């Protein structure tokens, strides 16, 4: 059965779509893109659903979609997505704004105790009893013309988003967790953009053991790689692998004769870049040493492994009791940072997210997990086995002093 949707593939069709969005306070949104062979994901389709209709927009055949992006980031309407990381980034690149009113159905289900992360197909089956075809999962979205099967698949990705919103919104209101989702999507959008704006060289594998000028070289090579990858529109690691950046920094020489023979750089097609690489290394040797995010982490107490494991198990128990997916609340590393802070409150624990080193103490996480975990850490509460045969065999109890 063919789905009823409108394919917007020229500028003359755009005004009617803009009018439909302008009149809607709720819009389902998804994208199709290719990311594996380019510097940044190549946007191939935008799928939009109102409560009345589905639209598929072909950006490859449109001259300017700025008006569409501005409507999507307008705070007068709610944007409904499923795991909308790339949709957030596409919108931000187009407008320098994120979505003021975002509803992520995957996050909503997790906050209600459902599986997280849950695929879109599982969400549809669980909440609406609908099935989702997987036939075009690995399709080439750059290919034109798009087939009927491709377009149907794309339309299905947004067709039911308004219905999912209605079902999950009501459950969130009933459970008192509507504000949790509002806070969580705002936090995740903020952190996602902050991570995009930060330099990525500290995340290169092996760089955490380096220091001084080695870090300067790593940073300069990373900056050169980013510029070159953007110019050639190719994945950065295809320009210069992470392990080669680390090896060049360890050798610490800008002499082209010593760089050229390194395995991985000796290919004839790569030799023409040796002077640029040497120049980047020279800049690293001469420039200031960057401050690494982990520079003070070795001064902080690391919690004993058994303590971190125990507190992580306690967090899982608390999530189970309160009916929320543990993967949304935090990770074992989050627990470890929290324990480090409690062992020495005079330090600020390190974090991949520089703005939120103690996420488990903030907002609803603090009430749900942070405070009870501290009671366990401080010896005021304990977990014990209450009924080994029960699905929930553990119970949190007070410690008699």
Spell out the key features of this protein.
401 residues; DNA polymerase, domain 1; 3 domains; 6-stranded mixed β-sheet; two-stranded antiparallel sheet; 18 helices
CATH superfamily of the largest domain: Ribonuclease H-like superfamily/Ribonuclease H
The count of helical stretches stands at 18
Number of domains: 3
CATH C-level class of the largest domain is Alpha Beta
Please tell me how large the radius of gyration is.
25 Å
CATH-defined topology of the largest domain: Nucleotidyltransferase, domain 5
String of helices and strands: EHEEEHEHEHHHHHHHHHHHHHHHEE
Largest sheet: 6 strands, mixed
Spatial shape: flat
Any idea what the CATH architecture of the largest domain is?
2-Layer Sandwich
Strand order of the largest sheet: 1-4-3-2-5-6
Structural class: alpha/beta
Number of strands: 8
Beta strand %: 5-15%
Percent of residues in helices comes to 40-55%
Average residue-wise pLDDT: 91
What would you note in describing this structure?
By secondary structure, the protein is an alpha/beta fold. It has 18 helices and eight strands. It folds into three domains: 6-197, Nucleotidyltransferase, domain 5 (2-Layer Sandwich), CATH 3.30.420.10; 201-286, DNA polymerase, domain 1 (Orthogonal Bundle); 297-398, DNA polymerase, domain 1 (Orthogonal Bundle). The chain is 48% helix and 10% strand. The strands form two sheets. It has a six-stranded mixed β-sheet, with helices on both faces. A two-stranded antiparallel sheet has the order 7-8.
